[in-house]
Design goal:
This protein has 289 residues and is mainly α. The protein has one domain. It contains 17 helices and no strands. The radius of gyration is 19 Å and the shape is globular. It starts with 10 loop residues before the first helix and ends in an 11-residue tail after the last helix.
């Protein structure tokens, strides 16, 4: 049942912002590479591409480049489809769930993992995900086909994955409409001070310093960056417009849950995300400028 009260502006974005880190913990945790190494995958980029795309099946590098958007294709092609000759998407999905389980238990402790609040968060997030739509959302749609895990903390993690990928797929639509390619999206987000750090991008996305400088020049020619690489007024406005468009494309799950449910889910999610961040889930070098 949804709430009859109107959803406050940006309530969905605020909820997403505290749900998404809960999903993302396993990407930065030692448990995932350790589990993937057992499958014969000992490269961190290869593990990431395999884990995030496994729900789509043994797809090729073009599909992953398209769906992930901001990775250099040559980096993807270095690992895909080779990983599918080493293991299978079904095995990777099982590995990913084991890694998420171990990561969350380590970061939160068994008491929080088994708490009534975790079960409530899972119920609310799954209810929100009922409002998601699959059209033009390949990563969301693929994960929506997966079964919901029985354990409440993994059910919540699964729902967080659905909500993350639903918003992410919609964000790519907004980026295309704004005529920003994958690297230009990274450069403008970095310049806003809210995205992945330059060091983080260079370490994980496959781009070179020359690629970054060329993207900056393209953005300067559009009046979006200044000579120092900072966003111009037009660049700031573009980033704001992107987020508003993403909010609009992502409103369905939060409208489905309703204002009261969104407020409660945001409260619960903030508590769990604060706990995992305080436990050191994310390396500080990956974020900011």
């Amino acid at each position: 049942m949804t709430s009859s009260s109107a959803l406050p502006e940006q309530a969905g974005r605020a909820c997403h912002n505290v749900i998404n880190p809960f999903h993302s913990t396993h990407y930065f945790a030692p448990e995932l590479p350790a589990e993937m190494a057992k499958e014969g995958i000992d490269n961190r980029s290869a593990a990431y591409f395999a884990c995030r795309s496994a729900a789509m099946g043994a797809v090729g590098p073009g599909t992953i480049t398209a769906a992930f958007y901001n990775f250099k294709h040559e980096l993807v092609a270095r690992h895909i489809p080779h990983v599918w000759s080493v293991t299978t998407p079904q095995n990777v999905l099982a590995v990913r769930l084991r890694a998420a389980d171990a990561t969350l238990r380590r970061l939160l402790g068994d008491e929080a993992v088994g708490s009534p609040e975790m079960a409530e968060a899972a119920k609310l997030a799954l209810r929100a995900a009922e409002g998601c739509t699959p059209q033009a959302r390949p990563l969301y749609a693929a994960h929506a086909d997966l079964p919901v895990p029985d354990a409440p903390h993994l059910a919540y993690w699964h729902a967080a994955t659905l909500l993350r990928e639903h918003r992410g797929d919609g964000h790519l639509i907004a980026l295309l409409d704004a005529e920003l390619d994958g690297l230009e999206a990274l450069v403008t987000h970095n310049a806003s001070g809210r995205g992945m750090s330059y060091k983080g991008v260079m370490a994980t996305r496959g781009w070179s310093e020359e690629d970054w400088a060329a993207a900056q020049e393209r953005l300067r020619s559009r009046g979006l960056l200044d000579a120092e690489g900072e966003l111009t007024e037009a660049g700031v406005q573009l980033r704001k417009d992107l987020e508003r468009t993403t909010d609009r494309l992502d409103r369905a799950p939060y409208e489905h849950l309703g204002a009261e449910g969104v407020a409660r889910l945001t409260e619960l999610a903030a508590g769990f995300t604060t706990a995992v961040m305080n436990a050191g889930a994310f390396p500080s070098v990956m974020f900011g400028k």
